[in-house]
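Work Package 3 (structural annotation) set out to generate three-dimensional models for the target panel prioritized at the project kickoff. During this period the team completed the workflow that converts sequence records into discrete structure tokens, so that structures can be stored uniformly alongside our sequence database. As a representative example, we reproduce one entry of 196 residues exactly as it appears in the project archive.
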Amino acid sequence: NCLNHALKLNPNDATLHNTMGEVYRALLDGHQALACYDRAIQLNPRLICAYNNRGIVNALLGKTTEAIADWQTVLNLTANDPAEAASRAKTFSNLGNVYLDLGDAAKAIECHRHSLELDSTNISTLSNFLRDHNLLPNLPPEEMLGIHREWCARFTRNITPFPASSAGNSRDPDRRLRVGFVSPDFREHAVVYFLM
């Protein structure tokens, strides 16, 4: 209600229309969200967040051509602005995910590589980069291992392993081993390809 009231007071505020689009996206009303993003872009054709958000909703609705066009617009608008590196990194990551959905693992890898060049600390993007490589048909195992070792070196250096004695299990090599997996993203995580 507050946002609707603000829009009545400021009907030409592109940022408010973008925010309303975010509300509709959170409510899973993609078509209303798109209408809000369209209006925001009509009012301010340089509103980067509106293109990015519209690209996300287009991708969720299966409109991949439109999503790619929105994200290409973000990249064009931010091309010479170092302050927009984080936005560009997210945009390349989004593009990589859409290209993977389209079955183009090589293009997905290229996009995720660009994203990592802009933000090398994003675990999600690097995990997607690993996942993409699993879909290359002729990737040598040594190269795959190297990519995974790079991920491990980058993201596990500050993790302190549990001491071996803290597990409290038997060290008998002939014991029955029980293994369990818990993951919120088991369907798409790179490691699932090694287990299934």
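The two ends are 48 Å apart (CA to CA).
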